[in-house]
Specification:
By secondary structure, the protein is an all-beta fold. It has two domains: 124 residues, Sandwich (Jelly Rolls), CATH 2.60.120; 98 residues, Jelly Rolls (Sandwich). Helices cover 0% and strands 54% of the residues. It has no helices and 22 strands. Strand 2 and strand 3 form a beta hairpin. The relative contact order is 0.19.
Length: 238
């Protein structure tokens, strides 16, 4: 069965900036929990909602793999590499900060909020040249199955990062069962329920609950509601 570390939705950190509502699964900014620093190479999982026309001004990053997954609305990105893009649901964005990069993120819409997950993963190689990547995936390919959205392979489905990590998204009808087999023996998997309810290896998870799973070679999933959506993040346990 393995070991399961449960992080209920209500246990997350919360930052209320008016224009920004942010929930932190791990310690971030003014939220510090010594028991919630990271899950292996997974350092940050922020669940952000940004008001229309608002956003994060230009700020620096280095030596971090930063993945953004829009859930609704449109997020505008600009960076010091010259990229200016807009991402929406179905898009996956990555920025390998490497030796250093500056970027800003804004709600592209003047009328509708934008919701997105921002995820930071420690890289396996430091001080690489900064890099930006973005793909648009067919959401039908994750209907009642798991679709790969992040991997270490530049030629594989989704975006790639400098780490032996694999992310999968799935959108399931009620009572669909599937299994997930980690790619590497010593990796852990962090499951995050975006919408609905799931049984994850006999542990019931509700919307926005998270669970870190280690010491197992198979993870069993069962959706307990219609239109249930889950993100699985397989990462090395540093």
């Amino acid at each position: 069965m393995g070991q399961i570390l449960l992080h209920p939705c209500s246990s997350r950190g919360h930052a209320d900036h008016g224009w920004l509502q942010s929930r932190h699964s791990f310690s971030f900014a003014s939220y510090f929990n010594p028991q919630r620093i990271r899950f292996g190479a997974l350092r940050v999982l922020n669940d952000d909602r940004v008001a229309p026309g608002m956003g994060f001004g230009e700020h620096p990053h280095d030596n971090m793999e930063i993945i953004s997954i829009p859930l609704s609305g449109a997020l505008e990105h600009r960076d010091s590499m010259g990229n200016r893009t807009v991402i929406r649901r179905g898009d996956i964005q990555v920025m390998s900060a490497g030796t250093g990069v500056r970027h800003s993120e804004y709600n592209h819409s003047p009328t509708e909020p934008v919701e997105f997950l921002q995820i930071w993963v420690f890289p396996d190689t430091r001080n690489v040249p900064p890099r930006y990547g973005q793909v648009t995936l067919d959401e039908l390919d994750r209907r009642n199955r798991l679709q790969q959205v992040v991997s270490p392979d530049p030629d594989a489905e989704g975006v790639w990062i400098h780490q032996s990590a694999w992310f999968h998204l799935g959108n399931f009808d009620k009572n669909i069962e599937t299994t997930f087999v980690p790619r590497q023996t010593n990796n852990g998997v962090y499951a995050f329920v975006i919408r609905g309810e799931f049984n994850v290896t006999d542990t019931r998870l509700f919307e926005r609950d998270g669970a870190g799973i280690t010491e197992t070679d198979t993870i069993r999933l069962q959706s307990l509601s219609n239109d249930a959506e889950i993100l699985l993040m397989e990462v090395p346990m540093l």
